Amino acid sequence: MSDQGMFQRNINSDGAAAQSFDGDGDIDSTSSVVAVDTTDANVTVSLPSQLASAGMTITVVKPIAANDVIIVVQTGDSLDGVVDAPVSILAAAGAYASLTFVSTGASWANIG
User: Can you tell me the distance from the alpha carbon of 67 to that of 56, in angstroms, rounded to the nearest whole number?
Assistant: First the structure.
């Protein structure tokens, strides 16, 4: 995936990186919080490589109620043990819905 939408990277006071998207893109391997603006359409974001991100936690937040966020893994990676499995934050979840993912190095785990 490419960063076709607006991409922003900030460093929080604790040193953790945050990103925001309003179009499809790849989550940076140093980001811990990702805000996805779905005002205009559904947005797909891709988690970084599970192996390169072992031990990392990423929270994806959808601050807008409209449309969906689709979270995918890199080709060949897995989510909750399923290869190439996507997961979504649906419009019905409302504003500020979020999902948190942890990489074990062997898979991404959706911890809610």
Answer: 27
13: Cβ–Cβ under 8 A, 6 or more apart, which residues? Answer: none
pLDDT digits (tens, 9 = 90+) for 59-76: 999 999 999 999 999 999
Backbone φ and ψ of 49, nearest 5°: -50, 130
**Residue 35 — φ and ψ, nearest 5°?**
-100, 130
Between the CA of residue 30 and those of 44, 90, 94, 109, what are the distances in Å?
18, 25, 27, 17
Q: Which domains does the chain have, with CATH numbers?
A: 7-110 (2.60.120)
Q: Which of 22, 5, 70 is nearest to 44 (CA)?
A: 70
This prediction has a pTM of 0.85
